[in-house]
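Box 3.1 A note on notation
Throughout this textbook, protein chains are presented in two layers. The first layer is the amino acid sequence; the second is a token string describing backbone geometry. Keep the layers aligned when reading.
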Amino acid sequence: MAKNEKPPKPNLKVRDEYRECHQRTQITFRHNQRKIWHPRLRSYNHIEFHRSRTYGGFLARLGLFFLEIYDGLKKGYQAFHKWLFPQRDKIYGHPSADTVVSGRITFGQKQKDLDVPISNMHLELWGRAYWGGYRKLSQGVTDRDGRFSLPYDLHYARRWWMRRIWLGIYHTGHEHFTERVVRIPDYTLFTKVPILQGDLVGTEMDLNTIQLFYWEYRQDTPLPRVVIRDHDKDTPDQYSPGRLAAIEKQFIPIELIKVKHLDMIKFAPGKLTYEKMQADYPENLTSCLKPKNPDTPDITRGDDWFGERMMNGMYASDFDRDPRNPDLYWIHYHWNSYDKNPHYYAMPDVDVWFRLKPDGLPLPVRITLTGPLRADDSDPRAKHTFTPEDGAKWQAAKRVARVSGAIYTEVAHHFAGTHLNVEQYAIAAFRNLHLSPIAGLLKSFLRSVVLVNHTADRILVGNGYITSACALTPKGLDQVVMNVMGTLDWKHFKPMIPLSEAHVFAKAANLYWDIVAQYVSDYIEYPPYHERILEHWYEVYRFSEDAVNHSVPAFLCNFLRSALLDKSGKPGPGHSAGWYQTGNRMNLNDDRPVVDGVPRAVSRITMAKEREGVTDADLANLKQVCTYIIFQATFGHTWANSKQYDDIGEVKYCSLGLRFGTGPDGVLGPESDTSIAPDLTRATQMMWWSNMLSRTGYGFITANEDKDVSPHMIEALEKHRAAFADLGFDIDTIQSRTNI
């Protein structure tokens, strides 16, 4: 733009239409609630992308009704029992160091953890009288070697009315905060070790080594995943009752639409059309913006809209400058190195070049697709380049790029970048953070992620929806996830620098990052917390070691390796050329920690085990990693997850996969060619998927339904409500955990 040239005026009609549709399709989580005559969903883990295990028959629902009555009576009895026989926080008798119950607690996994001690595990020695009263005889914690020695009153424990005695082992779950911002650790009974009263003789009762199968790492995958044997019975974490109630109310109406469509496909072939299927689901942003007059151009298929969504939509792409032409920006979706099924679905590599318009939004100028575009084409290196002058082919190329961006967002940004990324820190945190105030800082944000990831293993990845709806095989999907995880590190992470004033996603991400960074810093520097963090620094050390030792190998693709690094593997001239933007990415200047001879993706926080060795750099690292974890578990996940309904809520506009089609142009045929779109089964499953992810929210920071988010965090966010609103972002939509 010339120096004195005024920026173009925005198209007020388009802006007003967008505002109206955005408001009309915005999800409030108050609609689409299950009616009394709807089927019931017994468990979160009963969700399936084919047919979820709901209870719709009269007898099944009647049985579930009585089962729920039984559960309610059981909970009522337990509450009454707890009131009648309270477990008071009082030590009975006169404990003596001459009589102790001792032992050692270790992880129980045979392959790696068998002799790894669990330190700072909360322990309580209890007895119960014949009339039902509880008596706490002693309490303590394990030391660094997992050993404990609990003094108690032998004569009190041996009294004739003491019916039974046990050692209770408690783990620190999430935390609650009072209105005065006082942390209340949630000590949850993990297991009981019974003790025979007759064995309490002499000076020491040695329980030897107690092995706990506690937040175990899976051995069947190189990814840092937790062992869950039975989702409904044997999990290291649990959903809150509110989460389970919300998923049932919000999910069932969407499930019923999908089931109706599957029945029509099976029993009434030809009755269901793409238009009928689309109309049955709630209206999304792109379908709302469709013009009522067929002769009016559809802005959602235009170049301006394409660039805006690539920058600020669900995709929220990483824009690099073109190394060959710094006047252009470039995004790349790479698929040809991964294992694919080449027979049904098109999945070429996609390169899109943009120029930045005077209004700050990117405008696509060229798209190159590398790979087969027709079923009879087998050349994986064939390049096809399109520009706006190519008319219908250009429109089709943009559709291929949208779909590629959608599947990459789902797999890389959403599943790997937030879900699995957060899980690796959740495992390390729950295994090691017990007495450190860092437990109170992080654990509430790390709740539920391992549970929802376990469900995703079945319905999303592996043999789930994605591999049935695009060319990736289960092996290829694993390869993508591994490579993405290999690029994720907390150290020196910062959100992408905004390319312009119109880069809403980057501006919102940076604003939120700064808020969380300040909150984390204030929390860690708060004198009482700071002192206890240093006192229990060994927990931070163990947290760091678990995260590093179980992280995946660091990864950099061959193109970036040759373009950015020198022969020694260090950043070379290409890295300083300025075309490669570093936001949202691993810092290539950092030396990777080496474990078993392999450079790892996750950096160490500290090498110090004692407070005396803690440096300012260690504390800065701790603040950075905590900020990173909270950011990814909340804002990062919210953006990638909740905006899916906006951008993959209209099948013909964008889906998670495209078929080659039967026309002469293959995947480049028009939208009216339904042989290119996902088949009706995958189409309704995709609509179900995008609605389920976006419409079943629970656990929002500002709502604080479970009272486990610090009021200071909420207050810090509320102070910037107007600033986020100016960006068109509602802070009430930010979830406090990755639970969907």
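DSSP finds 21 helices and 18 strands in the chain. Residues 469 and 682 are 6 Å apart (CA to CA).
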